[in-house]
Design a protein that fits this description.
The structure holds two protein chains of two kinds. Chain A is an alpha/beta fold. Helices cover about 45% and strands about 20% of the residues of chain A. Chain A is built from eleven helices and 14 strands. Chain B contains 14 helices and no strands. The chains are: A alpha/beta, B mainly alpha. Chains A and B meet through α1, α2, α4 and α5 of A and α2, α3, α7, α11 and α13 of B.
Chain lengths: ~350, ~350
């Protein structure tokens, strides 16, 4: 109000006032930037065990799967006493991730952990952050290799295949017919897991009496999966078990089994979300299923960040670091840390998980 | 500067109701000044209250994200001054980005990129001409037309590039796009942007064409009676908007080293918000380039400070929306305030000789 009253006096004084104000503002800004520059220079440095700041930049905020991952990171940071923060966009877009990376660079965050929405679009911002002294870790979704020190990945594809086969084998005494209910015919993940299962069936004598009769596809659609499961049981009356390596497929199949006469007789296993599968485990339709625990990714990221900042690892293949409850983790090929093995869920432990 | 405003409003004055010239001039002046004051105030507040804000890094990170908005705001300001709007700017930019990606990819990543730039700019001009034809020649309302082309051009971008992302642009160009002038932190590309801003400022404030735009915004009928070619002016404004938006899209690709179908998505709202916040009347007939530049900087400064303060995207969306509403509401409130004050002042003057 006061300002506009001054302007009202006439053209010249108004302009002079603007200039004066601008000059004053610039002076203030310059002084402040001088101060803050000196301050940050004094603040950095410190011993090997200093508390670090870790900022997570997920693909997008408010995604249930991501929230579990971040929860793991938060817990681990609380345990180690490091500063934990999460910033990120509401929609999964790379350009808004870049803005957040820039602000983190400016805040001199020690470690930026990002699940990239685009392997390249975030790269130049990450390189700027690196030039500013930050360590870069990717989790869940990798960037171009050159833009980060480490990639924290879920599991090894082979482990996923083997754990599902083992769970089924244990329950059907390693003999009889079984089928696979997968996602889509060309799903990369599922196909690689199925390939490892087939290799294992052929090479491991333990599984010699088990026979894979067919692989069917529910297209990761709940209704289709439900109908395909129904069809399987009609066309293969001797079926002992079904493996469904997809969260949609296993939930739909469990729903069909739980209300059919096959409940408890045909064994179902595969990859599922505990929250979706809880009721079927409790009512006895399903005894065991598996999935990696997303929280472990967050946990591993925090410990990897500490090790990188302390300088005990550089992220090269063969480096090892202690990761709290996860034990010792090792950096593998392509500077990638595999958090696995997959977690197996049963009636005994399912209530401990919430995702 | 003083010349600018006087001429601008001298051009506008004949078309308006015969309000006293001085009052009109004062109003305009105080409005422009208020916006600059607001910008300075916001910068000072941010420097004081937001940690790390007061530094050279801020200048570079803040301004580089302002570039596409600033570019698109120039033709947008002129279009809104004529009483129309162009909501298709971000989609036009997205289409150019996608086109550049595909051209570059098809050339095997070693074609003549300058030629591709020109092709993209021509396509941008064609997009603008399409809008201009429907609005100026066919006579359809700009809001409806450009909401339509907002979806249409984005759809074309999807057709052009599909769900691919092209990322292997020449490193020399992508580095140039993100580089800053050493010492002062201003992005190098800003130099070219300032040239564009200067050109638009000259066109709007120092040419008969620019003066005609203000007249157009006040009353299309009156403007055509005094010999202004209404349709031709509008048509060329949309063509200019297409070309500049396309240039913004090309910058976007180089800045993020990635061309996708969703590049620049949603930026039209920031552009319109910045232009309105910069004092351009949504009803047409008034506004200035100085104000618009300040408006863009206000939006960016507020957004960047909030990001630096660690606020989530949700808060940013709310603030941008709030500023937009404020920018529409504020002029009418302040106009009433000024009118009331003038009445009081006049009353005092009238009283003075009597006592």
């Amino acid at each position: 109000m006061k300002l506009s009253r001054i302007t009202d006096r006439g053209p010249r004084p108004a302009r002079r006032t603007i200039l004066l104000t601008a000059a004053a503002a610039t002076a203030v800004l310059l002084t402040l930037s001088g101060c803050s520059g000196a301050g940050s220079a004094g603040g950095s440095g410190g011993g090997a065990n200093k508390k670090i700041s870790i900022a997570f930049v997920p693909k997008q905020l408010n995604n249930p799967y991501t929230d579990v991952e971040l929860g793991g990171g938060k817990k681990a940071a609380a345990a180690t006493g490091d500063a934990y923060s999460v910033v990120g966009p509401n929609t999964a877009s790379a350009s808004s991730q870049v803005s957040y990376i820039n602000t983190l660079t400016q805040k001199h965050t020690d470690v930026i952990a990002i699940a990239a929405n685009d392997p390249n679009a975030v790269c130049s911002a990450l390189n700027q952050a690196k030039a500013g002294g930050a360590k870069i870790i990717t989790f869940d979704s990798d960037t171009d290799k050159s833009c980060r020190s480490l990639f924290i990945n879920q599991v090894v594809a082979k482990d996923v295949g083997l754990v599902e086969l083992k769970q089924l084998g244990e329950q059907i005494d390693y003999q009889g017919e079984f089928a696979i209910l997968s996602a889509t015919a060309n799903a990369t993940n599922q196909n690689s897991w199925i390939k490892y299962m087939k290799d294992e069936l052929a090479s491991n004598p333990k599984y010699s009496k088990m026979k894979l009769v067919t692989t069917v596809y529910g297209n990761d659609d709940d209704t289709t999966s439900f109908q395909v499961a129904q069809g399987l049981l009609q066309s293969y009356p001797n079926l002992k078990g079904i493996i469904s390596p997809t969260t949609v497929g296993i939930a739909a199949t469990a729903r069909y089994l739980s209300t059919s006469s096959y409940k408890g007789k045909v064994i179902l296993t595969g990859l599922g979300l505990p929250n979706q599968m809880r009721q079927y485990v409790k009512d006895g339709t399903v005894k065991e299923f598996a999935l990696w625990d997303p929280a472990k990714i967050g946990t591993a990221t925090v410990y990897a960040a500490k090790a990188l900042v302390a300088g005990t690892i550089t992220g090269k293949e063969g480096d090892t670091f202690k990761a709290g409850s996860l034990g010792t983790l090792k950096v593998g090929a392509d500077n990638t840390v595999i958090v696995g093995p997959p977690t197996e869920f049963t009636a005994a432990n399912i209530d401990k998980f919430d995702f | 500067m003083s010349d600018t405003k006087t001429r601008a409003e001298a051009a506008a004055a004949p078309a308006t109701t015969p309000t006293p010239r001085r009052t009109g001039r004062r109003l305009l002046r105080s409005r422009d000044a208020t916006i600059v004051y607001a910008l300075v105030l916001i910068v000072i507040l941010a420097a004081i209250f937001v940690p790390y804000f007061a530094s050279v890094t801020t200048v570079s990170f803040l301004l580089i994200d302002a570039i596409p908005i600033l570019l698109m705001a120039m033709p947008m300001a002129l279009i809104i001054i004529t009483g129309e709007i162009d909501l298709s700017v971000a989609s036009t930019a997205g289409l150019s980005a996608a086109l550049l990606g595909v051209l570059w990819h098809q050339s095997g990543s070693h074609g003549n990129i300058a030629v591709m730039f020109v092709i993209c700019l021509i396509v941008g001009a064609a997009c603008g001409a399409f809008n201009g034809f429907l609005i100026a020649v066919v006579g359809l309302p700009s809001l409806a037309v450009t909401i339509g082309t907002l979806a249409l051009f984005r759809g074309l971008a999807l057709v052009v590039i599909g769900d691919n992302a092209v990322a292997d642009f020449p490193v020399s160009l992508t580095t140039f796009a993100t580089s800053s002038i050493p010492g002062i932190g201003v992005p190098t590309v800003m130099v070219f942007v300032l040239v564009v801003v200067a050109v638009f400022a000259v066109i709007l404030h120092f040419t008969p064409f620019g003066r005609a735009l203000f007249a157009l915004g006040y009353s299309t009928e009156a403007a055509s009676f005094v010999g202004i070619r209404v349709n031709r002016s509008k048509f060329w404004l949309y063509v200019a908007s297409g070309v500049i938006s396309s240039a913004a899209g090309l910058f976007w690709v180089l800045r993020y080293s990635s061309a996708q179908s969703d590049s620049v998505q949603g930026l039209e709202l920031s552009v319109v918000a910045a232009v309105l916040l910069g004092g351009v009347s949504i009803f047409g007939g008034s506004g200035s380039i100085v104000g618009v530049v300040a408006g863009v900087l206000i939006i960016r400064t507020v957004n960047y400070s909030l990001q630096l303060g660690g606020l989530p995207d949700t808060a940013l969306t709310i603030v941008t929306g709030g500023l937009l509403v404020l920018s529409v509401v504020a002029p009418s409130v302040s106009a009433r305030f000024v009118a009331a004050r003038d009445r009081r002042a006049r009353a005092r003057l009238a009283d003075a000789p009597a006592t």
